[in-house]
Amino acid sequence: MLSLMVVPDYLPDQFSTWYLLNNYLQKKSDQNISLIMPPSFDEVKAQQDKEKVSMLFVNPFAAGNYVREQGYLPLVKPKNQPDEIVIVTAADSEINAIEELKGTVELALSNNEDANFIGLRLLEPANLSDDELVINRKDNFLMVASSVIRQQAKIGIIQAEVYDSFNSVTKDQLKVLLKSRINEVSHVMLYHKDIADKAEPLREILCKMADDSDGATIVKALSFPEGFTELSEEDMEFMIDVVDTLRM
């Protein structure tokens, strides 16, 4: 049996949609695929330590380790759906630009590693020291937004896709200071080299999902309106290099 693990940085209302995608993939490929949805990143690691899964859907900051250290290869990525973030403050805040952040600044973060890396890089023009930047970790992006709205944090880092999904009531209480424009990194689906003989049919199915009604409904619900596109080894390596540069 094959297995597909999805890391826990999707929107809450997309949880059941991943089961629909897995059922679709099983039906089209005539393969039994076990879907694994760990509730935390610690459990993602525990699962991999226990038994390596056949396929993974992961953020670009985790992908490098899987590709270079654990024998995974690129399968697909969401088409024209890069991972971008926004840095927000309260709508009535006197802050209108990153450079205006001075003194002690409370920063609300989620457990999304790629969003945090990008956001912290974008905060560099503020020249805040480690002592001045007070990290306030939250379980998810909605809690980050709530922390900023309630002025428990001066600023917060939120995935742009998640921010766009907020209702108008929430958005009206926030102000976007900056949005990233990286365009080169995105979540990716990887496969382990042990299932190399099954990779091409699975890639073809995923890349054609947006072309039929059932598949299009699923990828749209996952916020991938154009579906998936093939991810080459060359493009994967380039993405990893971009991530490594952001980490410097």
Describe the structure.
It is a single chain. The protein is α/β, with parallel strands linked by helices and 248 residues long. It has helices spanning 15-29, 41-50, 60-69, 113-122, 141-149, 160-165, 168-171, 196-207, 213-221, 233-247; strands at 2-6, 33-36, 55-58, 72-78, 85-90, 105-109, 133-137, 155-159, 174-179, 188-192, 228-230. A 6-stranded mixed beta sheet has the order 2-1-3-10-4-11, sandwiched between helices. A 5-stranded mixed beta sheet has the order 7-6-8-5-9, with helices on both faces. Strand 1 (2-6), helix 1 and strand 2 form a beta-alpha-beta unit. The longest helix has 15 residues, at 15-29. It is globular and about 55 Å long.
SSE layout and pairings?
Elements: E1 2-6, H1 15-29, E2 33-36, H2 41-50, E3 55-58, H3 60-69, E4 72-78, E5 85-90, E6 105-109, H4 113-122, E7 133-137, H5 141-149, E8 155-159, H6 160-165, H7 168-171, E9 174-179, E10 188-192, H8 196-207, H9 213-221, E11 228-230, H10 233-247
Parallel strand pairs: 1-2, 1-3, 6-7, 6-8
Antiparallel strand pairs: 3-10, 4-10, 4-11, 5-8, 5-9
Helix pairs in contact: 1-9, 3-10
Short structural description:
With 248 residues, the chain is α/β, with parallel strands linked by helices. It contains 10 helices and 11 strands.
